Each structure stands twice: as structure tokens, then as C-alpha cells.
């Protein structure tokens, strides 16, 4: 089995000057949720977990109907949240939609086993017929680490190592692996293989960590600046670092780096109504409560509360901060907002904000500004005009161990270490 240093060298060699799979195209707009189950401070009602889950499913399906391109759900393993199994939920969303990309606003790369991530998101990718990508992150709930046998003090190296393994599991039929944070793998094949043997597009999300921006750039993946709750200039520096390193690693120019941005939104016909209606939700939010005022957060962070035109102006301002970017996500269901209001928000954004943003960004963006890579883009980048690979397993030999050649077309010259018994 290769040493850690040899594995790292192999990863660097495999990624050296790998061209970007991103192609010029239009921006995407989406809805994101963190799945909080929160008391409505206006009505005093706290929904059940089941009701909140059902409402979220309806909202995800409605996102497509309202004209959005993406719906993303977070991952949590503690109250007051419900989304402990994002892939199960997103499979249901995919089954009820036809064009919507299903994604995550966080997939925990730290406390999840990379083997399970590889398997679960490959299954989801097949169910959704390629309408899948995912955003990896460390989350913000410290007790989760020991619940899953991890140490939060090792959070960053754990995140980096786990993605290194996940990447290999999706790109190699048979993997030998020895790292610091999980048991070794010997002659291991992750099943099923990704759709067309092309993994989902991966975003790396971070609110403060340059090493995550570096990893995103190294692999030629996307970087998501989840700017909610933080000053915009803070994220501009992370995005600039990512673009610089993306170019350094030979994946394309700075402009070809794939950037995503988030904002929390509450919109009404006039700004006075928007601020008046949203204020109780802001004041009682566990995130905002006791901190800077609503007006301060609106001024310093991408918390967008106002009329359709004010929302449009603030989103267009993101282009001045980040330059051309590929995906804009809106956070609309936080802090106990009732499901009926969430649907109203999505309808108003879809009818009065998105058409203007699509038109304005089309005129602002440079001709070579990239879109988020689709499954078709990545298949084209790998196979050109050829037929995609469709892995077919060799016959079961009776021992359920795949060894060096699990598939009919697996390279038989690849040598691996079989498990020690």
C-alpha cells in the first residue's frame, strides 16, 4: 500500500493542469434551506418536525415552479433541525421535479465516512439522472464531532483528508487507502459507480478557512461563499484566493473558476412592509438575537430585506464584489417563517426579481463567464463525442470481494492490496 506521501504525489500528478469542465453560460439562481424547526414569533406556533419536513418538500418542488434552477438542503444531526439524511430528501425532490438541480447547502465532510458519501450521492445521482451536485462543509455544531467519534480539534485536517479519499473513490474503480482518520481500505470499490462514471460536481463551502479555498482550487472544484451572517468583504478575500489558486493549479483562468454566493432574503412590495414583517423573525432568530441590529446586518452582510428593486440592486452589487460568478442562492425559510410566507417569497422572487436579474447579469457578465458545470458538461469534457462508460460488474466469484478487476472493463494491470484476514 502506498504511503501517505506517495498518495499525495499521485493526487497532485493526476490533477496537474486538468482543464476546467466549466463552460460559458448563464448564472443559476436557487433556494437553500438549513431545515431549522423554529417557533414562529408572530403566531407563537412551533411546527412539528414532520410538518416542517413536509413543508420543506413542498417548498423544494415549488422552487422549480417559481422559476428557480437549484434547491439545496443542509445537514444536521441535532434539534431543532430535521435534515439528518439529505440524500433521502433530495431523492424525493428529484422524483417530483424535471429540471431542478438538487444540491446541499452543507454535506458534512468531517463527520461522515467518505465511503458512505461516495455511495449515497452516486445513488442519488442515478435517481436524479445527473441533476445533482453537492457542497461540502464542516458545519457549525461542535457536539456533532464526538457523536460520530471525531475530534473537533482535528476538524480541518479531517475535512481535507476525507475529501482526498472521496475524490479517489469516485475516480478509481479500486482504491487502496491509508490515512489518519479512518480504517485503511484495501482493494475497495465504491458502488454504484457514478452516473456515466462521472461524479457529481463538488462545491467546497467555507466562511473563514483559506485551506478550504485552496483545496477547491487544487481539484478544480467550485468554491461557495456562504456569505450569510458575515461581512461581504471577508468573503471577497476568500474568493480572490480561490480564483488565484485555481489558475495556479492549471485548471483555467481566474474567470473560469466556479464561484457561488448566498444571501438571505425577505421581499415585499415596499421596503417598509418588508422590514416591519421581518423584524420579529430577525429579533427572535437564534443566529441574530443579541447581536447587531437588523439595519446593521442589512448594511454589512448579504441580508436583503426590502422591495423587489432593492433586492435586485443588492444582488447586482454582489457582482461588484465578486466579479462574474456562477450561482446565486437565496435563503428564505429561516427563523420560524410560516410555509405560506415562504411560498409567497418564492413566487415574488420568481416573478419580479429573477427575470430582471437574469437580464441584468446577462449584460454585466463577460462572454466567457462560466456556468455551474452540468452533468452533460462533465460527460462531454471526459468523453468528447464518444459514448460514456457504463460499468458492468464481473461475475460474483462467491467471495463477494472484487479484488483488482471488479468490472468487465477494469484495467487488469492495476494492482491493489487485498484485505488482510
Automatic annotation (TrEMBL):
<feature type="compositionally biased region" description="Polar residues">
    <location>
        <begin position="397"/>
        <end position="415"/>
    </location>
</feature>
<dbReference type="GO" id="GO:0016705">
    <property type="term" value="F:oxidoreductase activity, acting on paired donors, with incorporation or reduction of molecular oxygen"/>
</dbReference>
<dbReference type="GO" id="GO:0005829">
    <property type="term" value="C:cytosol"/>
</dbReference>
<dbReference type="InterPro" id="IPR023934">
    <property type="entry name" value="LLM_FMN-dep_put"/>
</dbReference>
<dbReference type="InterPro" id="IPR050766">
    <property type="entry name" value="Bact_Lucif_Oxidored"/>
</dbReference>
<dbReference type="GO" id="GO:0004497">
    <property type="term" value="F:monooxygenase activity"/>
</dbReference>
<feature type="domain" description="Luciferase-like">
    <location>
        <begin position="27"/>
        <end position="322"/>
    </location>
</feature>
<keyword id="KW-0560">Oxidoreductase</keyword>
<dbReference type="InterPro" id="IPR036661">
    <property type="entry name" value="Luciferase-like_sf"/>
</dbReference>
<keyword id="KW-0503">Monooxygenase</keyword>
<feature type="region of interest" description="Disordered">
    <location>
        <begin position="381"/>
        <end position="421"/>
    </location>
</feature>
<dbReference type="InterPro" id="IPR011251">
    <property type="entry name" value="Luciferase-like_dom"/>
</dbReference>
<dbReference type="Pfam" id="PF00296">
    <property type="entry name" value="Bac_luciferase"/>
</dbReference>
<protein>
    <submittedName>
        <fullName>Alkanal monooxygenase</fullName>
    </submittedName>
</protein>
